């Protein structure tokens, strides 16, 4: 797997594990992946993408299409991927990570044009331009504590909190899948199937892995392990 795809996987699971501390923020990954400057890797991929595909919404498009490839390599279909991102129905983020979408999208000085008027009016209340506190924002503002398909209904209305969530409903690669999920009465069964499929990917058994105490990071070794290793 290329470094860029690996990064996309990391970004994806950062986003999927409830709270999102990642996303595409300049210098966020600086020094966090050893000697590899991941931002240079991503910049190069974006450059190639831009010159070959002439996509305007590059970052989000890159994230989606590469995510589809990454999931495909794990035998998860784009449909599985969209269902799994539906896990954001109970996810959360912080104002600091969406501040640019609200006030200065891509340095345009205004909000992300894909954001609905309703969402904008809600977010400016919860995330003031000059914040005194980095408030938590549910990724499904209508039913933040329920696993349901309202997440998909909301992104169809321009109420996606994260750029990638909003992009799911707009991008030609995933738009129809989102529409089908909204209409599907068997949402819970399908979501469950996708979770089970994900649970079978590269399972580590019998001492090969670890159960993380925080899903975002490998467990810290107790200090004395460091001394003897
Ligand atoms: C948007 O961001 C750019 C770059 O950081 C900055 O120069 C500009 O003043 C910002 N605009 C607004 C309206 O905040």
TrEMBL record:
User: What GO molecular-function term can you cite, just one?
Assistant: heme binding
Alphabetical UniProt keywords = Calcium, Disulfide bond, Heme, Hydrogen peroxide, Iron, Metal-binding, Oxidoreductase, Peroxidase, Secreted, Signal
Question: What is this protein for, i.e. what is its function?
Answer: Removal of H(2)O(2), oxidation of toxic reductants, biosynthesis and degradation of lignin, suberization, auxin catabolism, response to environmental stresses such as wounding, pathogen attack and oxidative stress. These functions might be dependent on each isozyme/isoform in each plant tissue.
Binding residues for Ca(2+): 89, 140, 143, 148
Q: Which residues bind heme b?
A: 88
This entry's Enzyme Commission designation comes to 1.11.1.7
* Reaction catalysed by this enzyme: 2 a phenolic donor + H2O2 = 2 a phenolic radical donor + 2 H2O
Show which residues constitute the signal peptide.
1-22
Annotated ranges, domain Plant heme peroxidase family profile: 64-219
Protein name (Swiss-Prot/TrEMBL)? peroxidase
Protein origin, superkingdom: Eukaryota
Q: Name one GO cellular component term.
A: plant-type cell wall
For this protein, the record's InterPro entries field holds: Haem_peroxidase, Haem_peroxidase_sf, Peroxidase_pln, Peroxidases_heam-ligand_BS
Recorded family membership: Belongs to the peroxidase family. Ascorbate peroxidase subfamily.
Enzyme class (EC, first level): oxidoreductase
What organism does the record attribute this protein to? Solanum tuberosum (Potato)
GO BP terms: hydrogen peroxide catabolic process; response to oxidative stress; response to stress
Q: Which cofactors? A: Ca(2+); heme b
Q: How is the cofactor bound?
A: Binds 2 calcium ions per subunit.
Q: List the disulfide bonds.
A: 95-127
């Amino acid at each position: 797997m290329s470094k860029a795809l690996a990064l996309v996987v990391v970004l994806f699971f950062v986003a999927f594990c409830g709270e999102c501390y990642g996303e595409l923020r300049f210098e966020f990954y600086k020094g966090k992946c050893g000697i590899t400057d991941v931002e240079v890797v991503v910049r190069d991929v974006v450059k190639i993408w831009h010159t070959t595909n002439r996509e305007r919404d590059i970052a989000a498009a890159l994230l989606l299409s590469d995510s589809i490839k990454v999931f495909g390599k794990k035998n998860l279909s784009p449909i599985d991927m969209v269902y799994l991102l539906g896990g954001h129905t109970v996810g959360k983020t912080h104002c600091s990570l969406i501040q640019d979408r609200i006030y200065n999208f891509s340095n345009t000085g205004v909000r992300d044009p894909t954001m609905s008027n309703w969402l904008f009016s809600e977010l400016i209340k919860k995330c003031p331009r000059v914040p005194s506190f980095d408030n938590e924002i549910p990724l499904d503002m209508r039913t933040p504590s329920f696993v349901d398909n309202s997440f998909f209904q909301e992104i169809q209305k321009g109420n996606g909190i994260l750029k990638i969530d909003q992009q799911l409903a707009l991008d030609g690669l995933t738009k129809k899948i989102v529409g089908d999920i909204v209409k599907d009465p068997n949402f819970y069964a399908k979501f469950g199937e996708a979770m089970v499929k994900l649970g079978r990917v590269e399972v580590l058994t019998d001492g090969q892995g670890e159960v993380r105490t925080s899903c975002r990071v490998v467990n810290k070794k107790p200090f004395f392990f460091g001394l003897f290793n």
